[in-house]
Design goal:
- By secondary structure, this protein is mainly alpha-helical.
- It has one domain (about 5-120, about 125-180).
- Helix content is about 70%, strand content about 0%.
- The radius of gyration is 17 Å and the shape is globular.
């Protein structure tokens, strides 16, 4: 958590997203549970920095990211995915799909840069938690703000992501999430 402009966050998030299994887990949480990948990655960034889950203005963060996703990112993603299905349109459609992917990634980067400002409160030192515990608290707070019941499928998907990021066993990741709820 170094700069207010989100540059460090973008670098951290793209590195984390490239780790084995993390992208797939994030996309499951996005597609099956309607969680924002940027916010998921932000939870891990916060956990390694100078903030605790109670210091984040989760309602404001969720409202702003939801608005950005609905107005900008989701329409781009939807168009890109529709073109992927329309393979019969040929090379020009493929070129357009690639341009839409570039625009979608740029829109994600804009959102990432805005996350620190949208999360409200200045950082508050976390209680004596290890990063995986702090991440579980951030993930849990994010889901509570969305009023998502922590049903088995969601807990398993979150635990898989937590385990991949911190090299934990699935059982330990589930225990951290249970303690955070």
């Amino acid at each position: 958590m170094k700069s207010a402009d989100g540059d460090d966050l973008w670098g951290y998030a793209t590195t984390l997203y490239a780790r084995p299994g993390v992208a797939a887990s994030c996309l499951v949480l996005q597609d099956e549970h309607q969680l924002d990948v940027n916010v998921l990655l932000y939870c891990f960034w916060l956990a390694g920095g100078e903030s605790n889950a109670a210091a984040v203005d989760w309602p404001s963060l969720v409202a702003e990211t939801s608005r950005w996703q609905a107005c900008v990112v989701s329409p781009l993603r939807s168009l890109r995915r529709r073109l992927k299905v329309q393979a019969t349109l040929g090379e020009r459609a493929s070129f357009l799909r690639d341009r839409l992917m570039d625009c979608e990634l740029r829109a994600e980067a804009v959102e990432q840069a805005a996350l620190p400002g949208w999360s409200g409160s200045p950082p508050v030192p976390p209680p004596a938690l290890i990063p995986s515990q702090a991440a579980a608290q951030h993930l849990s707070a994010y889901c509570r703000t969305l009023n998502l019941p922590l049903a088995d499928a969601l807990i398993e998907a979150l635990a898989r992501l937590l385990a991949q990021v911190y090299d934990l066993s699935p059982a330990n990741a589930r225990a951290l999430l249970a303690a955070a709820t």
